[in-house]
Amino acid sequence: MARAGLTADRVVAAAAELADEAGFENVTLSALARRFGVKDASLYSHIRGLDDLRTRLALCAGGELIDRIAVAVAGRAAKDALAAFADAYRAYALEHPGRYAATQIRIDQSLIAGSPALRRTAEITYGMLRGYGLEEPDLTDAVRLLRSTFHGYCVLESAGGFGADRDVRASWEKAIDALHLTLVHWPRETAPEETDDD
User: Fold this and answer.
1) Residues 6+ apart with CB under 8 A from 170
2) What is the pTM of this model?
3) 115-135 b/e (C-beta count within 10 Å ≥ 16 → b)
4) Which parts of 37-167 fold into alpha helices (H)?
5) Which residues of the chain have pLDDT under 50?
6) Which residues contact 178 (CB under 8 A, 6 or more apart)?
7) Radius of gyration in angstroms for the set of CA atoms belonging to the chain, rounded to a whole number
């Protein structure tokens, strides 16, 4: 029987707190069960197992992240939108390292299609980039560039990987300037020219 007051949402919320405190890799059913003062088996009334828990946590954290980004970019365009997007992304990653790590796991494509948060992430990200006049396949390439730049910077910063005297925030702002220039001057992919075989 499920413990009174214990719900899937409460389990995921506790997992999010644990991830930020101890690291995403240390989110286990045993650790959560100890937090609630129950046996591991009690959690199976609310989640299907560790993979299900981590997927739920990833979706929850992804929703939190895009909510923050959406507020930041509202009413902005071009470089202002890019900088607001980037700053909101970085702030979330640094404030919630465990939750942020959860957003990087691979999620089943069928779950992605059914997730309002992940659909919203795509809409906001691609919408911002369309402000630079990009269309597919350049949009996907640009998304990958931004994601890898933001992720790499945040992971290195949170790990203390930048040892030079240069202010980390100043380097971040310079990176955003460089990304803006790259997007403005994007090497757009053109359709192959048709050949006349007659």
Assistant:
1) none
2) 0.89
3) bebbebbeebbbebbebbebe
4) 40-43, 50-73, 78-95, 97-102, 109-113, 116-130, 138-158
5) 1-4, 198
6) none
7) 20
